[in-house]
What we know:
The structure holds 2 protein chains of 2 kinds.
Chain A: E1 6-15, E2 18-28, E3 33-37, H1 44-52, E4 59-64, E5 67-68, H2 74-80, E6 82-85, H3 97-107, H4 123-136, H5 151-164, E7 169-173, H6 181-194, E8 200-203, H7 207-213, E9 216-221, E10 224-229, H8 231-236, H9 238-243
Parallel strand pairs in A: 3-8, 3-9, 6-7, 7-8
Antiparallel strand pairs in A: 1-2, 1-4, 4-5, 9-10
Helix pairs in contact in A: 3-4, 3-5, 4-5
Chain B: H1 4-18, H2 20-27, H3 31-55, H4 64-79, H5 85-107, H6 112-132, E1 142-143, H7 159-182, H8 184-194, H9 196-201, H10 206-232, E2 234-235, H11 242-255, H12 262-280, H13 284-298, H14 302-308
Antiparallel strand pairs in B: 1-2
Helix pairs in contact in B: 3-7, 3-10, 3-11, 3-12, 4-5, 4-10, 5-6, 5-10, 7-8, 8-10, 11-12, 11-14, 12-13, 12-14
Amino acid sequence: MAEPLLEVRGLSKSFGALSATDQVELDVLEGETHAIIGPNGAGKTTLIGQLAGDLRPDAGRIRFAGEDITALDAPARSRRGFARSFQITSVYRDFTALDNVALAVQAHAGHSFRFWRAARGDEALRAPARAVLEEVGLGARAEVPAANLAHGEQRQLEIAMALATKPRLLLLDEPVAGMGAEESQRMVRFLATLKGRETMILVEHDMDAVFTLADRISVLVYGRIIATGTPAEIRANAEVRAAYLGED
Amino acid sequence: MRHGRRAIVFLGLVLLLAAVPPAAALLGQPFYVDLLRRVMIFAIAAVSLDLILGYGGMVSFGHAAYLGVGAYAVTILAVYGVHNGVLQWAAAVGASMLLAAAIGAVSIRTSGIYFIMITLAFTQMLYYLGISLDVYGGDNGMRLPMRSQFGGLIDLGNGTEFYYLVLGLLVLVVLFVRRLVDSRFGMVIRAAKSNEPRTRAIGFSPYPYRLAAFVISGGICGLAGALLINHTAYLTPDLMHWTRSGDILFMVVLGGMASTVGPVLGALVLLVLENALSNWTEHWQIILGPFLVLVVLFARRGLGGLLWREERDG
Ligand SMILES: Nc1ncnc2c1ncn2[C@@H]1O[C@H](COP(=O)(O)OP(=O)(O)O)[C@@H](O)[C@H]1O
Ligand SMILES: [Mg+2]
């Protein structure tokens, strides 16, 4: 079997006495959609934060595409191909949807010590940004300030920003959280179109979404991964059912 | 036209300022040329602060440091017989940029109240350094031996010529900062101000961009310092007093942050009002203070925001 794109070994992080990430081991294969499920407070967001480079682990290693990236910060990881959406929507509220995505394009178009030409008139940034907005279904909303977009649209915009960086690994922290049923179905359908093309780590509460999208699932409880397997294996796993799926 | 009204306000301001010398001559009130020249010099300083404060979210409470360094650079060169204006002003801008690089390198790693305190502390240090420099007048200050010389091209001793030079530089600075904030570079510092975690997540390290903005801002303010010393022809450490930093900060907030033109308006209103009120009563501060507080409370985007009503640049 080929080397995994992402290898996490012995990752641990505590907040005081609370062990939010406890000896986590995780492999994500190229092209895989890997869901991480677990009850509230299990440490999913904390794990994503450490993968993205926003949080420093207390111990453990992270390897990405054969390189040890444990010491790299978030911008450096982004340049190597990490892209994320935040559990709490994080966009540039004063900027238009197109500006938001164009910034993501710009971040990966060489250095930005370019002082003279207006960035908003720069087709090298605008054209790819427009294409990604079209792809996520926000083409008609390009000129709307992000603050005026509906909640679901803002979540789509976050994913557009992630895609605009041409990522090798997408970290999606509850992409359908807070969405209405219809919005959420649309998002799941869209994520299904990415499946296979993108490698994704998907943190999600919505079990329908998880079982539709995931190739493999890891179950996180109290900071520990108690099981990893295909959706069928996870459904059948007695420990998981007891700990999480609410059955006995 | 997103910024149409703001551009019109700016054009109006420039025409108004351009009309001051002939109008003052007509009215026999040459004092106004002096007052408005001072306004424009502070406007340059305020626009430079807006670059990092309004667009970059960096609350520098020490911009007077660059005014001071610009003024000291010009004076020190003049004391040693270098009167060439190009050399003097280049030294003023260069020294200010170096100082900004040093202060920025330390302060930009912090944020919030720490950023404010560090920029303030550096400026206080320079203020006391100025007081201790007896060779250059120490506490009492000293006269500028001779105004900057531009080989007969322009005579700063001529109030009107100097006035139009300052006006020209103000227009250039405003246009320059506008271009800057709309460039790729400008978009990075604005993005980092608007949402830093998001900015890092898409791959920008904000630090070098912020530092560069800080250095450019310091350089522009150093130019204002070179102008100011030629305006007053008297060097004093008071140029670097923390209240001076406060004045500049206030001009930006009063006129409207992140709007480039707003700070010009802020400088104009603050200094003209200060002048008018101090002529009228010695208790002018009691009137000016509450007025400023009211503006800031009720016009969230400053006076400029009332005029052009557009969203600020973010
Ligand atoms: N910055 C922090 N400081 C202290 N405790 C934290 C911090 N962030 C998260 N926690 C705690 O760590 C645990 C895991 O949180 P989180 O990763 O957000 O869980 P999840 O995303 O699975 O709901 C929770 O108990 C939470 O309260
Ligand atoms: Mg979470």
